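Protocol step 4 of 6: record predicted structures for both targets in the notebook before any analysis. Target 1:
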Amino acid sequence: MKLKEIYNKDKKPLNGEKIKISFEVFPPKNGEAGFEDLFTELEILKKYNPSLVSLTYGAGGSSNDSMKLTEALCRKFNLMPHFTCVRSSKDEVARHIKEIETLGIENILALRGDIPEDKTVYKKDFKYANELVSFIREKTDLSIGVAGYPEGHIDAPDIYSDIENLKKKVDAGAQAIFTQLFYDNEKFFHYIELVRNAGITLPIIAGIMPILSIKQMTRITSMAKISIPEEIKNNLEKFKDSPEDLKSFGIDYVSRQCEGLIGNSNIAGLHFYTLNKAFTTSKILENIL
């Protein structure tokens, strides 16, 4: 099922569902040896009837692992593979598109990707994500998702410039916006207001990540513009020597965060960054559904 069908705002909820749920996973770092563990975790989450499962491209493993995992997952779920463009030529992108279309996949998440430090792997055919979106739209009938950044992309000078870039992706043919994770709903609601004021009407799916550890929180805030509310900061300090208590706090906090999002007419779904583990995401979903 394509993105525009999944997130059709006029479509009535099924089986009493409150909101569309989706999950993100990545290829295990140990390659095929880790596939079965990932399948086990996803089997636990399957009971929440995900509208789709997204698969990052080459994260932690090789692009070959990503393709093998794509083939396996698309038989079990409505799969949305990611594709980044700054390391790929037009010919490579066209070949990848053909591969996933052959598998019957209907959706793709089009991203710029991180600029590589090694400039020898930086291909010059694409510089920005909107160029990739336009290329996919011209070559295929795939439904295209793009990324949104509630506090602005780390490379953008400000949120307004970032929304201008989002508008370019939308004008190029995007059909849904999946946001970066965030922990401050008020900043997210302000972002939605700015997006709508820019004339963008596409479905916005909120990116949600469980709180697992101090190390995790330190890493994500060093890589992206993500504000950490005082309540989280205080509890990271409070439970710095008690990982299980921190995990319990994280489940409670993110559950409350999700409850604050459900019912907002501008939010089409919740997209959980599972980190390839089912437990915490499952506990949050038990609390909110």
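Target 2:
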Amino acid sequence: MKGLLDKSILKVLVYFDMFQYPVSIDEIRFFIDQKAGEDEIADALKHMILDQRVYRIDKFYTLRNNFKLIERRIKGNIYAGNLLKKAYAIAAFLYKFPYVRGIGISGSLSKNFADEDADIDFFVITKKNRLWLARTAMHMFKKLTFLVGKQDWFCMNYYVDEDALLIEERNMFTAMELITLLPACGNGVMGRFFDVNEWARDYYPRYEELNHSSKRLTHDVWYKRMIEWLLNNKLGDSLDNYFLRLTSRRWKKKEENFKLNVKGNRMGLRTGKHYAKPNPRFFQEKILMLYQSKLNDYDITEAMAAS
């Protein structure tokens, strides 16, 4: 049992080590893939520290004996706390766009870390068959944010509509994104989204303990209701399909031309009638391969995906 617990602890430390992020004992207990008490985890960590497999610096645990990582984390946590206030305010604004039904905060900010170059990433749920109308309107607005240098505050990266709440890629990376996703506002659909994706418990048993429902159900403003009323017809159907085709063509060209974003990463988007999401080949799969490689160093095997 102790050997299994050691491996489970190492899996948490290895995952966060990829992002140079030391973790507390509470975080280890939260992200561990088995249910274990704090005393059990503390005892296991004590022996792992004696064996010099793990280092404790201040109240954090890490695979690297480097105090600068602790300084980086603390500074990032403070900056994230301030940025989260902006993120919730921006989410409330984005919810006013037509056909938006729920918004969550994702990315590093949802994990309570940010640096001065951090983006504010959003996960968006839209009304069924109106994703592309909503996304196009929101991204037209985003173009205006470039004029004032605030485009990094409006990274709407991942869209699904009410007909595609189940996340297709079931692996440790997407499970981590699910368990850390912060519901910001919505009409209740965020709660349904988390319920549908209970498969994440296979990776993080504490997923089921979370209250994922948005604490603040958000009311639609009058002009949002009016625009939706005007487009709840065949015209709206045609426009949604048109914007899907247009966006798919544009992103296909970007991938074919190996376009990079400002941070030097490959640009890619998977598109469908009910979703618009980053191409997993350009980041998600890279993280999973690196994670498996690091686990191999500790003779730990991990299922990268669940069927």
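Step 5 preliminary note on target 2. The first strand starts at residue 55 and ends at 57. The chain has two domains: 2-65, 84-286.
Proceed to step 6 after PI sign-off.
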